[in-house]
Amino acid sequence: MTEPRCTALVLAASRGSLDPLAQAGGVSHKCFIDIAGQPMLRRVVGAVLESGRAKRTIVLIEQESIEEAKAILAGLPGAEHITYMPSQDNIGSSVAAVAAPDMLPLVITTGDNALHTGEMFGFFCDALDGLTDDVAVGLTPATYVLEKYPDGNRAFHRFRDGAYSSCNLYAILTPHGIEGAQVFKSGGQFGKKPRRLIGAFGLFAFLLYRSRLFTLRTVLQTLSRGIGVRTAPVLMPYAEGPIDVDRPVDWELSNRIIAAREAAG
């Protein structure tokens, strides 16, 4: 097994108290919905633990949901070492409340990435070796996603050299990179809600991004200069990486993919 060397942070807070997926699933929290026989949070955290890369795993979720989350994750190999912390008002504040220099590299994922596997998480962690940037972001080329799931309705970031979708995998690599978490105070989801880029990075960065005249790396370099944090892309060769469970159609697709994956062994 590869030596554990990162801190894993699973952001599991819901975006609203009346999440429609939680209501449809008959559970108290979106991350507790059933995905092919297991609660979604158990699948996500199980993938992190299975990767063997995390020396410490932290789950951030609403205070009132912590005990239920503990019960759901009980029995996973290594579950007794998971740390639970209450989430804050937004992603940026939640990360800032946890991130500290002695936790770096800090690898961040979300509680609704039900299709992530230990292999995916491990690939991202391994790709961080040798990077000298402050933060890193995992992206899958759109060609990978659409080739395997042609009807997949994903939010793609489009550039001159192609389109990409976020895998909800981020890494803070340096103490200076902790400051980069502040761009998520608006809520993130820049692919689905690109106008949030204006508040996070400024109007010029937004116009540069929307023009599609520049490559992914050029735009990332410009965004990095705007916030003073160097950002590296990590290209992920997994079509399922960007498929999170935000809508009923995603829930149905994730159920089908995991059921087929487990049937195939």
UniProtKB/TrEMBL annotation:
Q: Which InterPro entries match?
A: MobA-like_NTP_Trfase, Nucleotide-diphossugar_trans
Q: Indicate whether Nucleotide-binding appears among the record's keywords.
A: no
Q: Which organism is it from?
A: Hyphococcus aureus
One MF term in GO for this entry? transferase activity
Enumerate the SUPFAM superfamilies for this protein: Nucleotide-diphospho-sugar transferases (SSF53448)
- Protein name (database record): NTP transferase domain-containing protein
Indicate whether Transferase appears among the record's keywords.
yes
Keyword list, A-Z: Magnesium, Transferase
Task: Enumerate the transmembrane spans.
Answer: none
